[in-house]
Specification:
The protein is mainly α. The protein is built from 12 helices and no strands. It has a domain of about 160 residues: MetI-like (MetI-like fold, Orthogonal Bundle). Helix 7 packs across helix 9. It is globular, with a radius of gyration of 22 Å.
Length: about 250
């Protein structure tokens, strides 16, 4: 057993190194070029765009939770014809190229698409940014929520109903608290995936600019060094956010 753990740890260390080395190299390189890093950090545009990105991702996550939670519950509790097809549809945004997802959304949001039938032009708006973020990130929430609800024994709900609780009360007072950690984890993944999206967003809304398109524009207009400083700041912010979230999600000692 000990030998197996050592082998598996060595193999795991390889993938960990594959993730860490580019990130550490970016951070160290940016720190060595600290004057440019400070200049980037002083740009109000960077913080405004990052704030807008976080805000749009939060809206997308809230929509995913509001609509995805009931869907995940139904999928976890009920067997019905076409269930696997529904689960497959949910996961489609994960497997298709994200530029393809953006073009698909463009057919809905542009004046030449469905929106145009109603005299609307929804591209190049915050609505389009949120729609693109939601499209690519909602599978992460639904899949994790599904596993969370499936991990809760349905007998707990039956006991609650036998004691006089309605189905909704049993869901809110019994199932939801027991699955809460999964729902929170799904929301964090959903938000993070929304923040990181580029291709689908750029297809429907280059403006208002989000952090991924900002870094792309900086890379094209100012070069690698300037883009590296922006990426380093994003990495530090992401690390702080996820460290805080992990601390909040850590079980309290009994």
């Amino acid at each position: 057993m000990r030998r197996l753990l050592l082998v598996f740890s060595a193999l795991g260390a390889l993938i960990l190194a594959f993730i860490l080395l580019p990130l550490l190299n970016t951070l160290v390189s940016a720190l060595l070029d600290w004057q440019l890093l400070v200049e980037t950090a002083k740009k109000s545009a960077f913080w405004q765009i990052f704030g807008l990105t976080a805000y749009a991702a939060l809206i997308a996550t809230m929509i995913a939770a509001a609509l995805g939670t009931p869907l995940a519950y139904v999928l976890a509790r009920k067997d019905f014809f076409g269930k696997e097809f529904v689960r497959g549809v949910i996961d489609v945004p994960v497997v298709i190229p994200h530029m393809a997802a953006g073009i698909a959304l463009l057919s809905m949001l542009s004046r030449q698409g469905v929106a145009g039938v109603f005299g609307l032009q929804l591209t190049e708006t915050l609505f389009a940014v949120v729609a693109a973020m939601l499209f690519v990130s909602v599978p992460f929430y639904v899949d994790v929520a599904f596993e969370g609800f499936r991990s809760v024994d349905a007998r707990f709900e039956n006991v609650a109903r036998s004691l006089g609780a309605s189905s909704f009360e049993a869901f809110v007072k019994v199932t939801l608290p027991l699955a809460a950690r999964h729902l929170l984890a799904g929301a964090v993944l959903c938000w993070a995936r929304a923040v990181s999206e580029f291709a689908a967003i750029i297809a429907v809304a280059y403006y208002p600019m989000v952090i991924s398109t900002y870094i792309w524009e900086v890379f094209l207009s100012e070069g690698y060094r300037a883009a590296r400083s922006a990426v380093a700041l994003v990495l530090v912010i992401a690390l702080l956010i996820f460290a805080a979230l992990r601390a909040l999600m850590k079980p309290m000692p009994e």
